[in-house]
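Practice record 12: protein with iron/sulfur cluster.
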Amino acid sequence: MPSPRQIPKPIVVEPAAEPTALVGRIKAAMRSLDAVLVAHYYVDGALQDLADATGGCVADSLEMARFGRDHPAQTLVVAGVRFMGETAKILSPDKRVLMPTLEATCSLDLGCPAKEFDAFCNEHPDRTVVVYANTSAAVKARADWVTTSSTGLDIVRHLHARGEKILWAPDIHLGRYLQAQTGADMLLWSGSCIVHDEFKAIELELLRREHPRAKVLVHPESPTAVIAQADVVGSTTQLLQAAQRLEADEFIVATDAGIMHKMRQAQPHKTFLEAPTAGVGATCKSCAHCPWMAMNSLSQLAATLEAAQRGEATQEIRVDRDLAQRARRPIDRMLAFAAARKVAPSPFATQGSQGMGPA
Ligand code: SF4
């Protein structure tokens, strides 16, 4: 399988534009297209604020999927990465799904090609296939279950209790975490997130010594040695909740830096430090920002919407109907499971309490 390390980071070119004017154009276009904006916590703060201001949502991948499915707007605009747009289309096949750019992908998705994954599954027919949401529609269509991180622990525990052996893909760190927490028999695909994989355990130890009162918040796509130092292991939503509920004034955060926007908005009196991704001597101590999430911008969004108004929906997500139906089954299974267990976004989790949430 291709290594995410071989994938070059895209170059982001942001044309100069006046944000206020752009926001006005975007709002007008959204009204004319009957559109709602669904944004991930990792995208630019201006897009998050626009989603909030226009009745959309800023959320993790599970809540983005639910919100888009349940919202009455005929056009869903997904600011995030491609698998999020595909999931929105799979769940809402009769709606138009647009993205600021279809070029925004994910190393986990890229590192798990459908053909190779299918062959891997065929070699292990005795295993239940469970895939993370960060995968293509074709990989989801090959799965028995789709999970986000919030549903991952409960689903894996449920399958383990039924005596099922699991084939997990694509994130190896998350897979190891689920395995350690549940004791399930899991065969792991070896994908990783190029952002979370970069967090450095030794550097994190040094930073903790400099800030001994800081609480450490870690997303479970991070390496095991980084997770081991966490006060809270959780999803974006759960890390946000932890930052609000814990009484500490200082936090070290090991996930995409985009989340700092909401953390600082919600808790302006607290200090949030980025967990280190680089060692001693580096001029930049942390570069934890997804290059694909960074491709979402106000100007890209305006261009997408105005092209759609002209009837040129070049940034529209399309998923083959038959493929979408097959991919929908394991997603619906997860959503039904989560609804039955009321995974909502769930309460934050502390290390040892075995909870986590969507990526
Ligand atoms: S942060 Fe990682 S998991 Fe999320 S979209 Fe970027 S590469 Fe994928």
